[in-house]
């Protein structure tokens, strides 16, 4: 859903529930660059539901226009309503109270809101992952097996500096993986997870040797736009083209010849 990721798996079930309950709008909550909130905003639009996002930002920015960087551009293009809260407010009352109070407000206005929890992570949403694994099995990928011959699943917990905080080393790693493979990892989750996975492969080679590894890339590309200031010194590679004045004109085909 406008650059997708794992969150659409959960939304497939959650949005169906919203429609089944005759909701006319959905409410969800997350960080200022939440991929889940972006995917929800687009999914809601596809289903002709209004979308209310509660986004957590710093105290210094909570009264400002949140701008159009990354996920925010998509959310605002599709017309999601954005309510900003500070990290302190979020920590004080918690996501459930915040979504519930917006829900009560909308009900008083005669709306029929459906609340999706942080990340879409509840028991209903988890069915999306059950289906994802079945899909992998159907594709008959030879996924890594444990000693019983069954696939072994590992959730790589790689918090690093903390949620949405990226070290220069991790960002450099994201850049190196992109330059080496064409695969763009995301700064919040997959970049840290691959970083730790490769580190573990180096530190504990015996654990990984001879195994086939399927790494599930969970999306999150748009979050990288929030890191452009940190990335700028690592990219570069452009120059003004040097065209000799003596080069004659030669038309090509197509509109731009
Ligand atoms: C949310 C998110 C995750 C974590 O997924 P959960 O389903 O919330 O555990 C991983 N990667 C990306 C890019 C995400 O946005």
Question: What is the secondary structure topology, with strand pairs?
Answer:
Elements: H1 7-20, E1 25-31, H2 35-46, E2 50-57, H3 71-77, E3 81-86, H4 87-108, E4 113-115, H5 123-138, H6 168-181, H7 190-203, H8 205-208, H9 228-231
Parallel strand pairs: 1-2, 1-4, 2-3
Family: Belongs to the ACC deaminase/D-cysteine desulfhydrase family.
Organism: Stephania japonica
Protein name: Tryptophan synthase beta chain-like PALP domain-containing protein
Briefly say what this structure is.
The protein is of the alpha/beta class. It is 42% helix and 9% strand.
CATH topology of the largest domain: Rossmann fold
Count helical runs: 9
CATH architecture of the largest domain: 3-Layer(aba) Sandwich
Structural class: alpha/beta
Q: Describe it for me?
A:
The protein has helices at 7-20, 35-46, 71-77, 87-108, 123-138, 168-181, 190-203, 205-208, 228-231; strands at 25-31, 50-57, 81-86, 113-115. With 257 residues, it is an alpha/beta fold. It folds into two domains: 7-120, Rossmann fold (3-Layer(aba) Sandwich); 139-231, Rossmann fold (3-Layer(aba) Sandwich). The protein has a four-stranded parallel sheet. Strand 1 (25-31), helix 2 and strand 2 (50-57) form a beta-alpha-beta unit. Helix 1 (7-20) crosses helix 5 (123-138). It is globular and about 70 Å long. The structure holds pyridoxal-5'-phosphate. The site of pyridoxal-5'-phosphate (PLP) has 13 residues, from helix 2. Residues 5-7, 35-36, 119, 121, 186, 189-190, 218-220 line the site of pyridoxal-5'-phosphate.
